[in-house]
Specification:
Shape: elongated
Strand order of the largest sheet: 2-1-3
Order of helices and strands: HHHHHEEE
Helix content: 40-55%
Strand content: 5-15%
Largest sheet: 3 strands, antiparallel
Structural class: mainly alpha
Length: 154
């Protein structure tokens, strides 16, 4: 029985020591995320227009900087966002779905990367989607007929 306990303790020690190292976010990483959220703000503001035609070039360039960064989480998030960026031929409904998935990743980034308090999370129960924008006023990018539908999440 003692051998079993000792073996179990040794196994638990090795299992816990194999845990992935947490890489801290440096100021340059925070600036990358700040740039990403700023470009996201620009894209969402285009979607507030009557006939939105967003240009994803600048947003894509910022996402590429995340992918080429030396931080594993930023790299992973960048790759996840990159596959969601709508192409120019994408219809509006497909764009909304892709933007929604991008927003979910950005919400996670905002929660984990320090000093991103300038952006607030909003949620619209009618379309069941969230987004990040500056300010406290609801400007729903998903529902052209209901721009003020949603709430500021704390």
């Amino acid at each position: 029985m003692k051998v079993f306990r000792i073996s179990l303790l040794v196994f638990a020690f090795f299992a816990l020591s194999c845990k992935e190292a947490v890489v801290p976010f440096e100021p340059n990483h925070e600036k990358m995320v700040e740039s990403l959220l700023l470009e996201n703000q620009s894209i969402l503001e285009v979607f507030l227009n009557e006939n939105p035609k967003p240009d994803w070039k600048d947003f894509s360039n910022v996402v590429q900087t995340l992918i080429t960064s030396n931080h594993p989480k930023l790299k992973s998030w960048g790759e996840a966002i990159k596959v969601q960026i709508p192409n120019s031929e994408t219809d509006l409904d497909t764009s909304y779905e892709k933007i929604s998935k991008i927003q979910e990743i950005l919400i996670q980034i905002k929660a984990e990367v320090p000093n991103q308090s300038k952006y607030n999370r909003f949620y619209c129960p009618m379309v069941d989607k969230s987004w990040l924008m500056t300010g406290k006023e609801v400007k729903n990018p998903y529902a052209p007929e209901m721009r003020d539908c949603g709430e500021l999440m704390q």
